[in-house]
Structure formats: C-alpha cells, structure tokens
C-alpha cells in the first residue's frame, strides 16, 4: 500500500501561496510529486510537467431557465395517441364486436338477428361482463378469450 500525504498549496490561514504556474513549478522542482486540481493544460506548463487527460470536456456552459410557451392542459395524456392509433383502435373495436357477435348470435338470445338489430349497449355490456356471466359453452369460451385480449389491449392503450 502506498502512503500518501495531501498538502494544500496554501498558508495556515487559508490564503494561496502562489498561482497555478507556481504550483506547477513546485512539481518541477520536486517539492511536490503531483498536483490534484483544476490546473489548466497550457503550453508553458506542459514544458515542465506531464498532464493526464482531463476527465471532462473543457468549455464554458451555462445552466439557465427557459420559458415554456406551450399551453398546459388536462388533456396532455392524449398527445402520444396519434390519429392512426385512434383509427386502428376503432377498427379493432368494431372487428372484435363483430367476431363476438358471430360467435354469440346462435347461442345468446340477446344477439339474435342481424348485427345492426342488436342494441348498441348490449355490445358494451357483453364486453364488460362477458367473463363473469357465461355458462361455459365452446363458442362462449372463444368469445371470452377475444374479450379478454381486447380488454388487455385497451388497458395498455390507456
């Protein structure tokens, strides 16, 4: 294990003994082995001592607040939902509704008749309650599977 001693380049009162050039000169004269600090690499200093590569980029930067000109509203959560996504969701909603009707209209008396003759709210009731209220026939099993997948997709979108 190498023993090291850190010696500040300052007087006991806390005032600096000299400039950065003086500090680099002390390393050159052998009074110090190394310097740890924010010593800038310049041509005249590099003639006397070796520098390691800096671990950060050099330059000047500022951190300033910016004004947000965007209006803030409560519907900000809708911005990621593009019109294409809305159209795709609507198409799949109609497709799933049609597939459930095809599977259920022979078994379930609420869905008898052509697709347009059923009340619109029956489709919503089916989509919300189908998994709870069914007798377990094979057509209903596949309908239940479709509704579960659709509800999962709706939960992901929202």
Automatic annotation (TrEMBL):
Q: Gene3D superfamilies, per this entry?
A: 1.10.287.70, Periplasmic binding protein-like II
- Please name the InterPro entries in this protein's record: Glu/Gly-bd, Ionotropic_Glu_rcpt, Iontro_rcpt_C
The UniProt entry, under SUPFAM superfamilies, shows: Periplasmic binding protein-like II
Q: Which residues form the Ionotropic glutamate receptor L-glutamate and glycine-binding domain?
A: 18-65
One example GO MF annotation: ligand-gated monoatomic ion channel activity
Q: Does the keyword 4Fe-4S apply?
A: no
Predominant place of localization: membrane
Residue stretches in coiled coil: none
Cellular component (GO) terms are: membrane
- Which compartments is it annotated to reside in? Membrane
Q: Which residues form the Ionotropic glutamate receptor C-terminal domain?
A: 84-158
* Top-level taxon of the source organism: Eukaryota
Keywords, alphabetical: Glycoprotein, Ion channel, Ion transport, Ligand-gated ion channel, Membrane, Receptor, Transmembrane, Transmembrane helix, Transport
Q: How does it sit in the membrane?
A: Multi-pass membrane protein
Membrane-crossing residues?
Answer: 76-103
- Any idea what this protein is called? Uncharacterized protein
Query: From which organism does this entry originate?
Result: Hibiscus syriacus
